[in-house]
Fold:
Amino acid sequence: MNSLSKCVLCVSLLFLLVVPVHAKRLKVGLVLGGGGAKGAAEVGVLKCIQKVGVPIDFVVGTSIGSIVGGLYSAGVSPEKMEQLFMRQDWVSLFTDRDMAHKNDALHYANGCYYVFGFPVYQTDGFAGRDGVLRGDSIVRLLDSMTGYKDYMHFDKLKIPYRCVAVDLETMSEVVLDRGVLAECMRASMSIPIAFNTKMRDGRKLIDGGAVNNLPVDVAKKLGADIIIAVDLDQTARPGTMLSKTQKEDDTNWLGILAESIDVGGVLNMLAGEPKFAKDLQINLGNLINWFTRHPDDKKYRANLQMVDVLITPNLAGFNLASFEQDKIAKMIKMGEKAGEAVLGKLAEVKTRVMMSAMGFQ
Structure:
């Protein structure tokens, strides 16, 4: 054995003596908040996280954060997500437009009438529905992108994943840890009244942002020691320090519904749909009750206190419905800019994780 080999052996033995045999590596949780179209900024942030090489052990998301997070957990790269955001015709996607008949003034198929590809009326009316939009196209798109189409536990994804939804009847939080991935992602972003609710164990599920828009606590329960969170909430809340400008630029659920849905047209259709109208009235009652109480504020503030690296892209001037291509591009850039501003902190997280793996906390 030459002198170099002896030196290497001595260093190796010394390392074994110093480093505990059962060193516990710190776990990192990535939390992606809700915010509709503003979720494009989360794609920009993911680029920076990958650039630094921070190991992510858990991903938790709400609403659009559940979409971005679910795709990331399934192994979809930020670059591919950027292509999705930039190239997708979001209006057609959300309205289930049949692009094969986009030039047809009127088309009928499978019990549904289409005008220039947009579904406008079903011969069975609104049977089995409690939202104006079905959201079927979103599920098909997510299915095709993730590659996971069967029922599964989300711990089996490339990165363990959870998404948050809300029981519409009780307005209580529901953390989804298993199921068909695309269906659960869709459930977490079911903006009430606009989208048909998703059923799960007899419960109607809606957008998780109603009670937990930044689910840090869910990541902590999974075992995350370090939290990296992307907060898209530009609404000034009690106990937070967001500017007046940010507050004015944001748009709440009710505003989005008023902008996005032809309320008069819906009411006309409801004239012959008493069951749908009754469900709509009940759902609106629950939502208005929630909106006036805003019970998520306390949890939101508590969750912020548990974040180690908080990333808040400056999205003034954008809102939940800013799906225009030029706005999407700008928000992705704003996400990258926000990620670049914390590159040093992300590098520190990576170092802490590596050191913990060697027994140094």
User: Anything to note?
Assistant: Residues 125-131, 238-282 have pLDDT under 50 and may be disordered. The CA atoms of residues 60 and 162 lie 5 Å apart.
